[in-house]
Fold this protein.
Amino acid sequence: MIILTTSATAQELSVIPRNYADTFSLRIRDDSTNVTEFYEITNAVNDGNYLNFDNIFSPLLVKNHFYDLSLYVDYNFWNTNYSLWEMYASLWNEASEQVAIVINEKIFCTDQSIDQLYKNDYYELNRGQYTTYDGSNNTYIVR
């Protein structure tokens, strides 16, 4: 699962894809409202086994919402013909429905600082909403 924030600036994503491409389409769907947004990514960089890129989400992501993320290569995108002519029985200038899925992933949007690797800081559903009393003054006994 990818954790993102409600920031209006570019957010960096790092994924392990099925196949590596530097130009692809990004589709994000809000699980609560079923609203889908599309973005074109042209700045992806391979770093070892990871594919790193950044994107500015507009409209902004909603806090505490889950999203479905799909990265795919669209064969209809001009000048990116990845399909072999022997394997696809359509003319080169006709629109096709063929896409190559790069990755399918879930996103959760939160503004909490989460650093599970170094600080052992996990997401807390009720952070800042409830306080607990940790006193141990038991001198008063109710009978």
